[in-house]
Design a protein that fits this description.
There is one protein chain. The protein has about 180 residues and is α/β, with parallel strands linked by helices. The chain has a single domain, classed as Ribose 5-phosphate Isomerase B, Chain: A, CATH 3.40.1400. It is about 40% helix and about 15% strand. The protein is built from 6 helices and 5 strands; from the N terminus they run E-H-E-H-E-H-E-H-E-H-H. A 5-stranded parallel sheet has the order 2-1-3-5-4, with helices on both faces. Helix 2 crosses helix 3 and helix 4 packs parallel to helix 5. The longest helix is centred in the N-terminal third of the chain and has 17 residues. The mean pLDDT is about 90.
């Protein structure tokens, strides 16, 4: 499997070690992170490039996943999720790594390099890579809903909106009683 990596200065040491770990497990590793330590570098471009490469590979029929990390993993997950077609999950345990794939068919994970040991990180990543998507109908349906929103803003109907009922948000609707609780 092709694995796209990205980090900023906070995960640079992990990135180097991780590349050896993944290559040793037979994966093709492509690094989109910095080439040298710079304590002032910024993660967005690194993570977005890795996410774009995952989508490009998957669209071409190449099995690919992405791993982005920084100090907490939060910003890196946000950056990766800006790329159309990415489902990036923040991972902090074996369970979240497995569920990211099994339930959400995540194609990128984000990990906080300052939050975990290298052995913990590799166990999360190995679990993420080896866990297949369940293909259960409920998970497929939810992923389709996310993709539809990404594509054109489509959402499922809001169950709180009743056709023909009072418009409780309208200032002209006399049935609205703000004191009713």
């Amino acid at each position: 499997m092709r694995i796209h990596l990205a980090t900023d200065h906070a995960g640079l040491e992990f990135s180097t070690q991780l590349q050896h770990h993944l290559a040793g497990n037979g994966h093709e590793v492509i690094d989109h992170g910095p080439v040298e330590f710079d304590p002032l570098d910024d993660y967005p471009a690194f993570c977005i490039r890795a996410a774009q490469a995952v989508v490009r590979d998957q669209d071409a029929g190449i099995q690919a996943l992405g791993i982005v990390f920084g100090g907490s993993g939060n910003g890196e997950q946000i950056a990766a999720n800006k790329v159309l077609g990415i489902r990036a999950a923040l991972v902090w345990s074996l369970a979240t790594a497995e569920l990211a794939r099994e339930h959400n068919d995540a194609n990128v994970i984000a990990i906080g390099a300052r939050q975990h040991t290298f052995d913990q990180v590799t166990s999360f990543i190995d679990a993420f890579i080896s866990t297949p998507f369940s293909d259960e109908e409920r998970h497929v349906r939810r992923i389709r809903q996310l993709a539809a929103f990404e594509e054109d803003g489509t959402l499922e109907p809001d169950p709180r909106i009743v056709t023909g009922g009072p418009d409780v948000l309208s200032a002209n609707d006399s049935s609205f009683d703000p004191e009713a609780g």
